[in-house]
Amino acid sequence: xxxxxxxxxxxFQDLEKLSYATIAQMFADYARYLAxxxxxxxxxxxxxxxxxxxxxxxxxxSGIEADLSEEEIVRRYRAxx
Length: 81
What we know:
Elements: H1 12-36, H2 55-62, H3 70-80
């Protein structure tokens, strides 16, 4: 697990770029270990919260409907691009 700050007004594409850069750095940090050591990485201790969503639910939430508030439209745009 590697956490990073998310800018206040980040859009989906911004978060995608930050995530990719973080993943690339994690790979660089762990590549030698993963290539030379069979010992499993230690568990992070992170615990997921909230209810898991299905792909169908995420697809439904990504849509913009006429009766949504402006605030909800902005939230969805930020989340799904």
